[in-house]
Amino acid sequence: MTDFPISMKNVIGILMVIALNLRQLRLVDGGSHCAGRVEILQQGSWGSICDDSWDLSDAHVVCRQLGCGVALEATVSAHFGEGSGPIWLDELNCTGEEAHVWQCPSQGWGQHDCSHKEDAGVICSGQCCTLCTGGRSEEGLQGGV
Ligand SMILES: [Ca+2]
Ligand SMILES: [Ca+2]
To answer: Which GO CC terms are listed, alphabetically (predicted)?
Structure first.
């Protein structure tokens, strides 16, 4: 057991990465895991995203993150019903290239001027394209995204 190169510092670093990755994303009340109200698990609470500045670029990041292809529609005004937890993010300004939706510029966790009447949602193209082709060839299907 002398060749065990991971120091305690490394272990703590790894655990912190794991803890950060416990943040989760889901779509609810849309009838499929690829459509619905956007909810993020942060600090142990599922919360929603405000529809201010919510558009297809933001929605694309959500769809890709979930393995659901591309976004067909970014829905606003609680199209999929109102959430009940915190409103975690507002004024999202994704370029569409982010790997995780919480990496997009926003006002910051919990910083918003919204109510759940403004919960953002998304309708994604679905899981088939990603699973069947390995992930990248879904681009172009939607022409002009
Ligand atoms: Ca936006
Ligand atoms: Ca706002």
So the answer is: external side of plasma membrane
